[in-house]
Amino acid sequence: MRLRPPRDRQGMALLTVLLLVAVMATVAVAVLDDVRFSVGRTTNAETGAQAQWYADGAETLARQRISRLTRDAPDRTPLTPDWNGRTFTLPIEGGTLSATVRDGQACLNLNSLVEWTGDRLAARPAGAAQLLALGRALDIDAMRMRTITDSLIDWMDTDAVARTSGAEDGAYAGGPEPYRTGGVPVAEVSELRAVRGVDADAYRRLRPYLCALPTDRSPINVNSLTPADAPLLVMLVDSRLDLDAARAIIGARPASGWPDPAAFWSQSGLGALDPTPAVRDQVSVRTDYFAVRIDVDHGGVQAVRTALIAARPGQEARTVIRRWTPED
């Protein structure tokens, strides 16, 4: 038996050592990668949690300010200090925080298309008529608006009978991704995307003027309307005004707002329209629902919180809806 020369044995030993070093280096890199990932994940979680705490603080502050606004003026929400749509920006450690408060009921409440009687939901004709009128003001095809309106009522009501242009469960069951109607009030305007007849164009046009409030009525504070909200005024008077006339009425609002709904309806452009008692009651000079958006940029983490805050005279403001997403 011949033994390998000492030089060969040394070469094999060296090769073995090199292989071991390579394996150990690979393992070390993998371990360091895992440690680095774990540290990054922990840091991101802590930064995200801190961003949420900042958003909590901003929402609490917003509720306090809204409570004070309601307490100081229980019958009419004042326009000053300027709060509607104004963005407040605050510096925070490692970033910025901004909060925007706006009137949360300067819109048509989708849930006003049904009436709530105990645990049953049935069509509310006045609400349906207003959605149709809003569609006319936005120049959406009348047949499409009828389909959207009837289908939305069917989406929420508790019966299984489809309206003339509506759709119950059967209309959605045959699609590539079958689903059923809700049978409950909508919680988000974005639910409208799932309703028969709603295409991207109709949704884009309607979305700025819609909301989903936890009530079956749609109160509108006319003192909070801007000229861009003119379609809502056209809707209120069932299309008996054109958009230019509606903008002119909103633009003629006194600097401090109309003192009461009667003063609003007494204007020359509205006095002869003789709105129904229900529409007169729908108009208000007090805001009961405020929409809040909070944007937090902390340590490179961006967080968005949106909330709907209810404020009634004699009560502290409370959050009724909270989301970690922007309104869509």
Secondary-structure blueprint of this entry?
Elements (H helix, E strand, L loop, with lengths): L5 H67 L13 E7 L2 E9 L4 E2 L4 E4 L2 E4 L1 H13 L4 H15 L12 H5 L26 H7 L3 E2 L8 E2 L8 H7 L6 H9 L9 H5 L11 H6 E2 L4 E10 L2 E10 L7 E6 L5
Task: Give structural notes.
This protein is of the alpha+beta class. It folds into three domains: 1-104 and 287-328, GSPII I/J protein-like (Pantoate--beta-alanine Ligase, Chain: A,domain 2), CATH 3.30.1300; 108-216, EpsJ-like (Ribonucleotide Reductase Protein R1, domain 1), CATH 1.10.40.60; 227-276. The protein is 41% helix and 18% strand. It has nine helices and eleven strands. Strands 1-2-9-10-11 form a five-stranded antiparallel β-sheet, with helices on one face. Strands 3-6 form a two-stranded parallel ribbon. A hairpin with a 2-residue loop joins strand 9 and strand 10. Helix 2 (125-137) runs antiparallel to helix 3 and helix 6 packs across helix 7 (243-251). The longest helix has 67 residues, at 6-72. The protein is extended. The mean pLDDT is 89.
